[in-house]
Design brief:
The structure holds 2 protein chains of 2 kinds. Chain A is mostly helical. Chain A contains 9 helices and no strands. Chain A has one domain: MetI-like fold. Chain B has a domain of about 170 residues: Rossmann fold, CATH 3.40.50.300.
Amino acid sequence: MSYRWDFTPVVTNAPLLAEGLVNTLKVTGVSLACGLVLGLALALMRLSRHRLASWPAGFVIEVFRTTPPLVQLFWFFFALPLIVGVEMTPFLAACVTFSIQSAAFFAEVFRAGIQSIERGQWDAARAIGMTHGQALQRIILPQAVKRMIPAFMERAIELMKTTTLVATIAYADLLFAANEVSQKSFRPLETYTVVALIYFFVIFLASQFARLLELRLARSGESTVH
Amino acid sequence: MTLLRVVGLTKKFGPHAVLRGIDLDVQPGERLAILGASGSGKSTLLRCLNFMEMPDSGTVMLDDKVVGRRESELVRVRQRIGMVFQQFNLFPHMTAIGNVMEGLRTVRRFPKAEARARAGKELARVGLADKAETYPAHLSGGQKQRVAIARALAMDPELLLFDEPTSALDPELVGEVLNVIRALAEEGRTMLLVTHELGFAYHVATRVIFLADGTIHEQGTPDEVLKHPTKERTRAFLARHKEFSL
């Protein structure tokens, strides 16, 4: 039995897939940006000596790391409106879910990065009269972030693939578009092959960019790449 | 006027009492060498003076004013007390001049050009004007420590704390750092120096303090403490240090 590959329906539906890709990148981009900011906030709260800050942060981090992202997404999209009466568009629900979910993972990356910086760096910063905040911003984070780049990249890739779940709440991302195209054309093998290639190229390009960034930062001698 | 006064300072790490009541007065222009066996509390004493470690009890007074424990107050006090560490602790993501400028820029809010000019002067003072744009990873240990000294000097400290500044250096690099410290001594700067370099302490210090078991065991002029110690433990410590000297 021989299967005859035919990519023409995929090519004719390229605009649909392109729109899906744009939507995927939108959710990924927004979640990544919000997740980083929120993740840093959670990490700083968790590292705080005040239990009122560290315990809630620890709770959020653990809950979102240990539950399946699909359940989280359903919960924000279906359950939250019932409880607090806030209707969310699929796009908003996806952004909220994946922002918090990736923040939980980023928080642990930030925490590990901050804790990996030698105590002497804090000492030197404080000895010239810096406040805790100034030391963090000027001395600790710039060094920690450099060490965190590989872990960040790993999470960002994971995030982009996790966003495929939004297709389940009828958000027209790349996978949703692929599903549509394959049903229309009866060519699922071709469609999903092309979609896999698209994911591969986007993520591959992004990780090459991250590698370049790492090499550039390695100039000052303190980095993960030597 | 007393620049620094320490009264009844104690510090414990867990159950272990490292400092058991230190009283100390430092006048402007004095240079104190602090000696003692490892574990005698030398570094902890130094670190309590600028509150890198929080003392458990006792007071630290600067210009006859008691230093409180609020961050805003500690930040101000630390600007007046420079510290040089055994492990240099340079900021690896900044060039030599970036390290020296950092306090001026971030803490004292100098405009960039002014901070750079001042930092350049401090680097020249420690003989490293030509290394301004070099990252710490490409400096020798002795050069790193000299940058660290320049970084402390840039803040115009009234008091300098040296925590074993040459202990992490290869022997052939010790001299260049001690020469810089000696030059600072000749300018009449007030300093406290924890060191194992007895010869240097003898020639540069105005007073020598020998710590044992978290208390000041013996103190006096370098000649009194290093040449004619009265206490048995001081003698034993000095004998151990001289064992292999020529």
